[in-house]
Amino acid sequence: MVTISDTSTVQVEIIPSRYLMPETAQRLLNEIYNNGGLQRIMVHGPNLPRAVPYGPGKGIPIEEHRDMIVQIGDQAFELRVKVGRIRLELDNESYIKGLEAACERALPFSFQIKRGKFFHDRMTVSDYAKFGKVEDNRLLGLIDPKAKKDTLAILSDERVTCDKEE
Asked: Across all residues in the chain, what is the average pLDDT?
């Protein structure tokens, strides 16, 4: 018998007990990616400024935030946030056990996994303003409406896209 939980996607949020360093974030994202069953993923956290935003050192580049490149599989992209939460949409519930095991392998501290609804399933005004009419619903809700430039990276088997056009 086919049930609703067998055919519908499951949305999950991973909440580590502290912010992740880029190396830990890379290890966790690789474990999640290797688990399989991903529809979409969003890394959530405070922005990392590239220069001192205010005060006497305003405009001076921050050296510690350089080279925050995360490699998932054989593809790399720039990490622009301090990773605090990771939101996922999985194909079905069968991938959750593997996700828990992946988090236990990658995170040396406690974490929580919550189920819920974290992504939009209908287009919002912000989505329309950034993308126009969208045919692929996996892009919905993955943008920051206040961002001055798009920071969306699309992972696929062929390549990673971080452009505004795609």
From this structure: 80
| Same-domain check for residues 18 and 59 | yes
Poorest-pLDDT segment among 113-122, 131-140, 145-154: 145-154
Three-class secondary structure assignment of 59-117: CCECHHHCCCEEEECCEEEECCECECEEEEEECCHHHHHHHHHHHHHHCCCCEEEEECC
Nearest to 35 by CA among 98, 82, 123: 98
Q: What is the pTM of this model?
A: 0.76
8 Å CB contact between 21 and 81: no
- Specify whether 33 is located in the same domain as 103: yes
Query: What is the arithmetic mean of pLDDT over 68-73?
Result: 81
